[in-house]
Here is the input.
Amino acid sequence: MTKPKVAFYWCASCGGCEEAVVDLGEVVLDVVEAVDIVFWPVALDFKTADVEALADGELAASFINGAIRTSEQREMAELLRRKSGAVVAFGACAWLGGIPGLANLSSRESILDFVYHGAPSVQDGDGAVPQEEVEVPEGRLRLPHFDETVRTLDQVIDVDYYLPGCPPPASLIAQAVMALVEGKLPEKGSVLAPDVALCAECPRAATKPEDLKVERFHRPYEIVADPETCLLAQGLVCLGPATRSGCGAVCVAANMPCTGCMGPTSRVIDHGAKALSAIASLMETREEDEIAVLAEQIVDPVGTFYRYSLPASLLHRRVEPAHAREEVPS
Amino acid sequence: MSTEILIDPITRLEGHGRIHIFVNDEGAVDHAYLQIPELRGFEKFAQGRRAEDMPQITSRICGVCPMAHHMAGTKTLDDLFHVDPPVAAKKIREMVYDAFMVEDHALHFFYLGGPDFVVGPTAPKAERNILGVIGKVGLEIGKEVIGVRKQLRDLISEAAGKVIHPVFGLPGGISQPISPELRDRFVAGAAHAVEFGKFALQVFRDVVLSNAEYVDLVTSEAYTHRTYYMGLVDQQNRTNFYDGRLRVVDPEGKEFLAFDAKEYLDHVVEHVEPWSYIKFSYLKDVGWNGFTDGPDSGVFAVAPLARLNASDGMSTPVAQEACEELFSTLGGRPVHHTLATHWARIVELVNAAERMGELAADPDIVSPEVRTIPTATPTEGIGVVEAPRGTLIHHYQTDERGLITQANLIVATQNNAARIALSVDKAAKALVHGPEVDEGLLNEVEMAFRAYDPCFGCATHSLPGQMPLIVEIRDLEGGLVREIRRD
Amino acid sequence: MSEVLREPAGSVGTTATPEPFEPRIVAFFCNWCTYTAADLAGISRMQYAPNVRVIRLMCSGRLDPQFVVAALREGADGVLIGGCHPGDCHYQEGNYNALRRFELLKLMLRDFGIEDERVRLEWISASEGDRVQKVCNEMTEQVRALGPLRLTTPQRVHAPRADIEAELVGQEAR
Ligand code: SF4
Ligand code: SF4
Ligand code: SF4
Ligand code: FES
Here is the structure.
């Protein structure tokens, strides 16, 4: 039997998803040996032309990590789409936008302005800002253009499967590759992880009361969390109830609340709104003013609930208030 | 007719850095520009986030060195919340950090930069990788590299929650203590790492130092710049990765500055060029004099060789011996040869392994007291660590609720950026004569910056650097003259 | 819901001679109180702004914050939520849960740059037809003053959870 050909590729990625694959290779070599990796820029010297030379659909699967911010990333994603039987969005960034997707809270201009003018270590005086095209004494230099927002992979190409996590846990990567090799892939659109909330696999679940109510939300530095008790029951905003399982609750095991990197379960389309709902419902009080006080204790709702999923959210990005907004063609 | 040569990563789809070389009518290089084509804006979208989330948010700048950002962020939170962590917390952080330094340096030496030397800079590209290393020095080393990295990365996962994107850092300490059982495994891991480090030093001696051709290459003028050097040192001016004062030596090797990270803005400032998204750090005390070396240029270097130059020695015995050997072989402090960075990296690997062992054996390390709860209102904090790739500074300001109002990050590769630009320009000028370049050029120009292990991802808070190359040679009208792809 | 919003309530496009902005308001009303009150307002000829499209929920506690963001994404310029007065919810805790979610959601929408005035929660009992009229009219004017909410949200190329979205946006519309 010929080994299925697979490609790994990274778009706007931190490299952690790539490291996760390297780590996997060190742990489960048989999984890596079951496939023929034909394209993996981080580790192997294959070229774009090699991918172009493949027949359409010749790759059994492409695993693409990172979100999309430039036209080049989009073109590469489109090319891999054509060449691949299946495309797997690998990791939180490719599936949901990831932490770098929080950039959708700022405009491109405000980022440039802060980095090259506002930052305290930038020396005043020369006032230079990188330009897409610039004349230097010897000639002309160009820099690429960046899209206004960070997009998820499935906002750019058709995606067949999603591997959740930041980065995805080794066991899930191994399972996904084996499913591919054995041709036992689930229904298109599936997220390749258990479809239950993290609390189901959390060792502290037994200490989570049935009718959990929270009198006060604490920030992680404010209390020393008991290492056995459910963190949410201790008033820490743990996103376990609104997050998919499959990671082994590793953050909770280290006595830190889950921040939601595994994304939502399949019945949820907007992770942040759902997580907000799950946490808000736990407030003990029924009094309006007291509810407002508890709500204020969640000091950064968007960064808390949409930590990994802002680009995939229904709202996608911050909007400028109407009065400050330019007319934009729809 | 004048020409342009563009060395662009094959993966230019994401832009990890490209080199643009202008060749004049006489065929000489006018200038070689190293461009970094992306920016992600972490400092901007940090605004409004909870300060305590910064160690986890900034670790996503780079999945190759997430611990460096996580730790710099955590130390910044101590300062921001005006809180002093318990002794055990500091020691655990440092021990875990040292474990990370070892595994990261091992990755670089054996997978990324080291193969240039172990296999040989003129060997075919297909052999200049970990497999080539194995071919040259035996299969055992391959297993060793994989084994030691796995052992250390598992230890880091347990202590820090996750190895890729740790979660244990909090203002005033860490989220969990170390059990005696885990401590024992850290002791064993450190012992293994020290042996591994000695072995790596021996590989370097056998393969590189015994070969006059390599030594000539290391010491050749094309790869030499007389700049300032910066690194963290302890109270005895010995190298430390986790904490200390920042010390700068001048191109003669004399102490030029020693300061607390909190004063960084008085000494380290950034220059912006319109042709790159990276910012170039330089010493404010000297000033920006363009891309040039010498005592009148504020250009400085960080990372392993710079750290050795900036210290008076190493804090542990085996590393100290190795450090002395390095300096005596290469003509005393400071060493200006960029390629000696590879050697310095394994000296540091040994140092980190030994230090990890010292800390693991310290009785404090299993104390359950790992948190001090902050009580003061957060205001402003600055923290520093030595990332594998050099000095890394985080600086946050918050409102009284501890929400970030301003974040500034000075990362390792940015500190090296001006010197890297110098290296690329100098190497191109020395090696390129007219548009008739060949593949050999590619590797030799690339070696000028691979030694730094630059992470352009960190540098622009965008993407990590990977350097498969394409060279396009164009005339000034933009027509393609020749294209060379490196296999 | 997308059906509801697709019938133009007025032009929001940019034409050569821009027509006045007519806000679109999506209202989620509890079946037992506010929805009945809205009916009453209709029967009693208490006219309220035609900009308000009412969606019936069995209880305000059924209000998932996802509905609110889905409405805004689908083109609503404002969202109104109506439930039973405190203590009167048929399911005991429903309206308190609505309030808890609403308070936190309001803070979060602020971070998205969406003004507080675009989302409003009111307790309106079955007999308060006049209050429905008043609140709907106020809300319309308030949102009119703010101007249109222009979201630029990319669609997924392939929406793998189309069935769920249909469920989410397919709340019974009036
Ligand atoms: S999902 Fe996480 S590990 Fe993967 S690229 Fe994104 S930030 Fe990095
Ligand atoms: S809320 Fe968090 S700590 Fe509690 S059971 Fe769920 S995952 Fe575990
Ligand atoms: S506990 Fe939560 S944040 Fe941590 S790895 Fe699991 S899903 Fe991700
Ligand atoms: S029944 Fe009306 S709000 Fe619950």
